[in-house]
Description:
Blueprint: H1 19-22, E1 32-35, H2 41-52, E2 56-61, H3 64-71, E3 78-82, H4 88-101, E4 107-110, E5 121-122, E6 126-127, H5 128-149, E7 155-159, H6 183-205, E8 211-216, H7 230-235, H8 247-252, H9 256-259, H10 261-268, E9 279-281, E10 284-285, H11 306-322
Parallel strand pairs: 1-2, 1-4, 2-3, 4-7, 7-8, 8-9
Antiparallel strand pairs: 5-6, 9-10
Helix pairs in contact: 4-5, 5-6, 6-11
Amino acid sequence: xxxxxxxxxxxxxHAKSEPHEILAGIDLSGKTAIVTGGYSGIGLETTxxxxxxxxxxxxxxxxxxxxxxxxxxxxxxxxxxxxxxxDLASVRAFADAVSKDIETLDxxxxxAGVMACPLERxxxxxxxxxxxxxxxxxxxxxxxxxxxxxxxxxxxxxLSSVAHRRGGILWDDIQFEKSDYNKWAAYAQSxxxxxxxxxxxxxxxxxxxxxAFSVHPGGIFTPLQRxxxxxxxxxxxxxxxxxxxxxxxxxxxxxxxxxxxxxxxAATSALLDDMPGVYCEDCDVARLAGEDSLRHQHxxxxxxxxxxxxxxxxxxxxxxxxx
Length: 323
């Protein structure tokens, strides 16, 4: 993938397109999808939309009771199984179980994540945002590759964020072992990692007709903000001092249904057949960020660097092997 590929295609959709618009005329009958975090926020709406279009959807869940409650109202062929992205043994067990139940995997939506949380360590001591958002999904995808290889034109969609523009991979101190922890730098790193992961993965899927993409779903009020106190959301400008949403933010932010549509578009659009590894936003390929870009839009050049994508892939393989 080259930075030059980051140009909108004129998809005909927009920032606040709804799922029924994206999936109009698309029949996913006979397709199998896995949606991490598919029982909460935009993940739940992704599950609902894919199942509504005929797909069989499997949702890995960290909280089975909550998942059962949230998924009870979803029509279609939807099931769940226990998995925690912070626990590699759990990831492997889920992948092993799924591999016994299905023969092929058509869509893998790496949707789950954590944001701006206090410093925690997961796995063998990884910083939790890098560990959950990137390494957990890296391990899951690697384990499910044999199923993807058997599918016809499979796709993997990695949920990144415009927060990647805050900074790239901290190559000299990825786990914040030498420097003071900064929750936003850690989040930016993990979201840059998600985009670079899709870049590198798409090259590995081309041999069997697969594609991988990363997406920014948009600004949405979901449980992802659970680590942000109201005072900080006011400081960020997301809320007014009285706790209400300012008109400007209301204009920019999306509903949970609108927040899943770029994912759905990346998972199904024929326009992306020849655009492996690109980063998408607002139901189209995102343009490269420039001086006129607002802070909530567009793509920073560092996530289009094939060399960095390959470097991260190699490092992730090493970290996984040692875990």
